[in-house]
Every structure is written in C-alpha cells, then in structure tokens.
Amino acid sequence: MARNRFGPDIVSTHWLLYFKSLRKFLIRKISKVGKNVDIRPMVTIVGTQNVEIGNNVTLRPFTSIYADNQENCKVVIGNDVLLGPNVYMTVSNHNYDNPQMKIADQGHTFKSIQICDGAWIGYGVIILPGVTIGHHAVVAAGAVVTKDVPDFTVAAGIPAKVIKKLN
C-alpha cells in the first residue's frame, strides 16, 4: 500500500473504503482528521500528509485531492463542510512562462487551498491552487474556482464568480 496516498488506483486502499469499519486505517494516514469524518469509496487523496479535515465532513465518491508537494502547501477543509461527489482540488499548477521549453520541463507552482467552516461545494467543482472558500459560502455545481470566494456568498460558473450574497 502506498504510504502517502490512497484511492481506487491502489487496489488494497480502494477495498478498505468499502468497509466502514476498515476506513479508520486509511484515515490515520491523513495529517489531521476531526470527528465524524467519512471517506467514501472511490475517493483519491495524494499527499495525505498535507491534508487536514475538520469535524463532520464526508468526502463523497470520485472526490480527488492532490496535495503532494515538498513546500508544505496544504488542503485544509474546515468543520461542517458539505462536499458533493466528483470534487477535484489541487495545490499544484504547471509553470508555463518560457515558450521555448516544454511545459512538462518547467516545474510547478504550489499554493494551499482552504475551505472554511460551513461551506458547501457542489457536484463536480474544481478548486485550483491558492483558493480560499469563505465561511458558509456556496460553490455551485460544475464551477471552476480560480479565485477566493468570500464568506456568505454564492459563486458559480467557469471561472466561478460571485452571483449572490447570503447575508
């Protein structure tokens, strides 16, 4: 079993997620985990040492979190966060400043992601590096979040933009 990751591409970890009583063995790999955390089958987490999950959070099927890096950039999910299935988060982006070089040879930039307490992330949302989703903010299904979403707002679209204030 891979030390710093789990997901359906690693057969033994995929099967452990199917059995609720065995999920605790995988959850221990994550840097910080609150109470009442449920990680469902078909979830992938790469860079488990850089992931923190608060209380009362469920990671639904096909959610992917990519936080593998040596720069201590993290994905931090607060308390009481609602996540739909098929959410994708990554702390990494390819550099592409030099048109004379292949993008694959230009390295990466890493930035942390934070999802604050009480946020709701809809189905199929993509969250890119450096983004903070505010307290009790809502991100509509299918949105691509490239910039911060303020507290108590609804964001939607590609790229996501604030479409409504909640307070």
Task: Please outline the helices and strands.
Elements: E1 5-6, H1 11-18, H2 23-27, E2 32-33, E3 38-39, E4 44-46, E5 51-53, E6 58-59, E7 64-66, E8 75-77, E9 82-83, E10 88-90, E11 92-94, E12 108-110, E13 113-115, E14 120-121, E15 126-127, E16 132-133, E17 138-139, E18 144-145, E19 153-156, E20 161-165
Parallel strand pairs: 2-5, 3-6, 4-7, 5-8, 7-10, 8-13, 9-14, 10-15, 13-16, 14-17, 15-18, 17-19
Antiparallel strand pairs: 1-4, 11-12, 19-20
| CATH superfamily (homologous) name | Hexapeptide repeat proteins
The helix-strand sequence is EHHEEEEEEEEEEEEEEEEEEE
Strand content: 25-35%
- Order the strands across the largest sheet as they lie in space: 1-4-7-10-15-18
Major sheet summary line: 6 strands, mixed
Mean pLDDT: 90
Estimated radius of gyration: 16 Å
Helix content percent band? under 10%
Distance between the termini: 46 Å
Give an overview in words.
This protein is mainly beta. The chain contains two helices and 20 strands. It has helices at residues 11-18, 23-27, and strands spanning 5-6, 32-33, 38-39, 44-46, 51-53, 58-59, 64-66, 75-77, 82-83, 88-90, 92-94, 108-110, 113-115, 120-121, 126-127, 132-133, 138-139, 144-145, 153-156, 161-165. The strands form five sheets. It has a six-stranded mixed β-sheet with strand order 1-4-7-10-15-18, with no helix packed on it. The longest helix has 8 residues, at 11-18. The model has no long low-confidence stretch (mean pLDDT 90).
Write a concise keyword list for the protein shown above.
single chain; 167 residues; mainly beta; UDP N-Acetylglucosamine Acyltransferase, domain 1; six-stranded mixed beta sheet; five-stranded parallel beta sheet; 2 helices; 32% strand; globular
